[in-house]
Amino acid sequence: MNFSAPKEKHAEILTKTTAEAKTRISQIMIDAGICLTIADIEDTLHILCGAVKICYPMGLPSYEIISQELEGKEDLSGTQASKEILEPDGTELWLASRKLDLSKILSDYIGKNEKSKIVVKLQKKGSDTPAKESALT
């Protein structure tokens, strides 16, 4: 099978769908106070998968990275991206240079002021204290 670049109308579908997907998970949504959920991410992946199926109805070959990603089979070993993945069992939360105890709730650390802005960092278990953030103004 010959997998060439999509036709112009299909390329437009992919471009628009990609732009929509980026918007759905962008900082703009956070600034608007819209919480990003796992369901939102899964829905966005389904939309991207649908666009790929429209443009390539016969499917993509298994070696295509986008095909592997949409099927959840992408092998990141040996890549920079593999260093960015944190497994839930091997991750710690840090706030103000203190490791958070997962049995406590966040208000135990920062109080009940709902207008507080905090930065919580994820770190691999056993790693050093993460770098401090600059002061928020």
Description:
By secondary structure, this protein is mainly alpha-helical. Helices cover 36% and strands 8% of the residues. Strands 2-1-3 form a three-stranded antiparallel β-sheet, with no helix packed on it. A hairpin with a 2-residue loop joins strand 1 and strand 2. The longest helix has 18 residues, at 38-55. It is elongated and about 55 Å long.
Give the secondary structure arrangement, pairings included:
Layout (H helix, E strand, L loop, with lengths): L7 H17 L2 H5 L6 H18 L9 H6 L20 E5 L2 E2 L7 H4 L10 E4 L13
Helix pairs in contact: 1-3
Main attributes?
5 helices; 36% helix; mainly alpha
Number of strands: 3
Q: So what's the oligomer here?
A: single chain
The largest sheet has its strands arranged as 2-1-3
Whole-angstrom Rg:
20 Å
| Helix content class | 25-40%
Order of helices and strands: HHHHEEHE
Give a quick account of the main beta sheet: strands, pairing sense, barrel closure.
3 strands, antiparallel
Q: Tell me the fraction of residues in β-strands, as a range.
A: 5-15%
**Structural class by sheet pairing and helices:** mainly alpha
**Annotation field: number of helices:** 5
Spans of at least 5 consecutive residues whose pLDDT stays below 50 are: none
Would you tell me the overall average pLDDT? 84
General form: elongated
End-to-end CA span: 57 Å
Keywords: Cell projection, Cilium, Flagellum
GO biological process, one term: regulation of cilium movement
Protein name: Cilia- and flagella-associated protein 298 like protein
Pfam family, one: CFAP298
